[in-house]
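User: Hi! Is it possible to get a structure for several chains at once, not just one? Here's what I have:
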Amino acid sequence: ETGVTQTPRHLVMGMTNKKSLKCEQHLGHNAMYWYKQSAKKPLELMFVYNFKEQTENNSVPSRFSPECPNSSHLFLHLHTLQPEDSALYLCASSQGTGAYEQYFGPGTRLTVT
Amino acid sequence: DAKTTQPPSMDCAEGRAANLPCNHSTISGNEYVYWYRQIHSQGPQYIIHGLKNNETNEMASLIITEDRKSSTLILPHATLRDTAVYYCIAGRNTNAGKSTFGDGTTLTVKP
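Assistant: Yes, the chains can be modeled jointly so their relative placement is included. Here is the combined structure:
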């Protein structure tokens, strides 16, 4: 595998379900990010991790819970989501948080029913 | 991050150069100009970035004005696969606590 991978690519879940999104980067980067992209809206930065430590939580509701066990892996745990949380969730990585050269994964298309 | 302004949409004929403008009049001296693009339903792709000097790579050229208040991304020979939303970002630190990607320019390359 190369670059940034995300699984699953598509996910349909009910509002009472618990699911997790996984991101893995094979670039040796130290910073990882979660973004949300809703239909016809700009990308919204959700969380930033640098060397496994969360450095940014952009006022994200607690039903989204990130986890970064090491610099290569990032998870987004989902529980009791709402239909308006349906969106494309993108993971990205970069060498550090001072650099904007981010590499994005293909995203997980989430539908909450 | 400095605010950027881009036209919402542009068309370009296949094989011709596509010139995408971006205004960033409030950019500070230590902020870079970055360009990304997003092809429909895929993750954004990094294209190029620069600070003061013009830059060129295998994908595009970046022309930054001397006062750094605006820049132009040039795709020298646009193809149909270049149809995408192009984002111009001016910034230095990703810990900005706010969205760094605006609405971008939707470039449509036509045969």
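The mean pLDDT of chain A is 91. Chain A touches chain B at residues 4, 31, 33, 35, 42-45, 48, 55-56, 58, 88, 90, 92, 94, 97-107, 109 (CB under 8 Å).

User: Great, thank you!
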